[in-house]
Specification:
Length: 441
């Protein structure tokens, strides 16, 4: 059998609507096959807790092989996977077109979908993954103050831990009643001529995302300021629902479909009107660029959105290559530790954030391509918080050795996870905020 990694990986669509997809007996057979390949390779041991869990099960079995592992323990590996996709994209030598056809993320997703349909997801996990509902309720006047106060009070955090399965020491974001949508309700895109640059058309509609709307509205404001400083009119989408990534991670594929039917028509209307789509969270961009197209490969509108949605720095670098990005920076940034989020790496767009920030004179960008351990609900749940901190530790150590002026990550959750273990010189932890600072706007 030839070695893999000699050809570009090919991703097959997710056949999630077929009856076979929900067949647990067939799932266990495929888990055994894939686990046996992984056991013989072990290249992914440092990526997350899923693979060490598998290898420990094998090494502690009577046969030292996968056939010695109790099939009931297969689910322990599934529970440690947070669908970052890195094993497929950067590590596994046996992905398609290799004959062994290994796709661990899709296999784990299938297992999570079976767990979900069997009713094995906690109600608390269903609730905290409902980011639209949580954000809307937590941003209400009065309720907003109560929620934020509870999150800062140790005694109340213990109650939250029991009710919502959120670790008492886990960082939870502050919710804003003055959401991004409220802050931008009177914002009008500038009436200037749009210039085409590569695949970008020079007019951007911001998919605000639940996180930026309710908990980090400043990031959205920074994006608008930077884009408009570069002659790119920006507007918000008329309305939006969650991109679906939190529900995908729970295996709730039916809910992902419902969210698709809400979001895609909105985005298609904007695309037809000449707008490109941008989102400040890598996970949301990835959902529209990869996950939905793999779930709905025959949906022409989903595929059109895939072609017209961009990471913000990907968008800006296209403008720079066409000579349309302003480089009149007013402030050097010194040494910047840039954590590359997993969901940005698997988009296969390259280090666009580093390339844009490197345009700022007096700036050195040091990249860290290692998981922060946050990964959605994994970084806050009682059963996985301590493991998430262990995963984050090597990243924290590397930033400390750099003696960096700034620590930034395109994923605000990852940035917070890392920053909590550091004493930072400056408060900015998002590269859009840093770019705005460099421009002096």
């Amino acid at each position: 059998m030839r070695e893999g990694s000699l050809e570009a990986p090919t991703r097959h669509p997710l056949d999630w609507k077929s009856p076979e997809f929900q067949n647990e007996e067939r799932l266990l057979e495929e888990l055994e096959r894939v686990y046996d390949v992984c056991h013989g390779c072990r290249r992914c041991v440092s990526l997350c807790a899923a693979f060490p869990t598998l290898f420990d099960l094998v090494d502690e079995s009577k046969t030292f092989e996968v056939d010695g592992v109790d099939k009931n323990d297969y689910w322990k590996v599934v529970d440690e996977c947070y669908l970052c996709d890195l094993c497929y994209q950067v590590k596994c030598p046996y992905v398609p077109p290799h004959d062994w056809n290994i796709d661990c993320p899709h296999l784990m997703l299938r297992a999570k979908a079976i767990q979900f349909n069997k009713g094995e997801r906690k109600i608390s996990h269903k609730l905290i993954s409902n980011t639209d509902l949580v954000g809307k309720v937590a941003s209400l006047p009065v309720v907003n103050q109560v929620v934020n106060a509870a999150n800062r009070t140790p005694a109340l955090r213990k109650v939250v831990s029991k009710v919502l399965d959120i670790h008492p020491r886990a960082h939870v974001p502050e919710y804003h009643k003055d959401t991004l949508r409220k802050r931008c309700r009177n914002h009008q895109p500038r009436s200037i001529q749009a210039n085409v640059a590569g695949p970008t058309r020079g007019r951007a509609a911001l998919f605000a995302t639940c996180y930026c709307n309710f908990t980090e509205p400043g990031i959205g404001e920074d994006l608008i300021a930077v884009f408009e400083h570069n002659g790119i009119p920006v507007r918000l989408t008329e309305k939006e629902s969650c991109c679906g990534m939190p529900k995908l991670e729970q295996g709730d594929l039916g809910k992902v479909d419902k969210l698709r039917r809400k979001n895609i028509p909105q985005l298609i209307g904007l695309i037809d009107a000449g707008w490109d789509i941008v989102a400040a969270l890598p996970s949301c961009v990835l959902m529209f660029k990869q996950e939905l197209p793999l779930m709905f490969p025959d949906d022409a509108d989903v595929l059109r959105v895939k072609q017209h949605i961009f990471d913000p720095f990907e968008y800006l670098l296209h403008r720079h290559k066409a000579g349309l990005l302003r480089t009149d920076f007013h402030q050097p940034l010194g040494t910047v530790a840039w954590h590359v989020p997993c969901h940005q790496r698997v988009q296969n767009i390259g280090p666009k954030t580093r390339q844009v920030l490197s345009l700022v004179p007096g700036t050195e960008i040091n990249s860290i391509e290692r998981c922060s351990g946050h990964d959605g609900t994994y970084g806050v749940r009682n059963g996985s918080w301590e493991k998430s901190q262990k995963i984050a530790k090597p990243v924290i150590n590397r930033v400390n050795k750099m003696d960096a002026d700034y620590l930034v990550s395109d994923c605000p959750m990852a940035a917070t996870q890392i920053a909590n273990g550091l004493t930072l010189k400056h408060g900015e932890t998002n590269p859009l905020s840093l770019l705005r600072k460099a421009y002096g706007i």
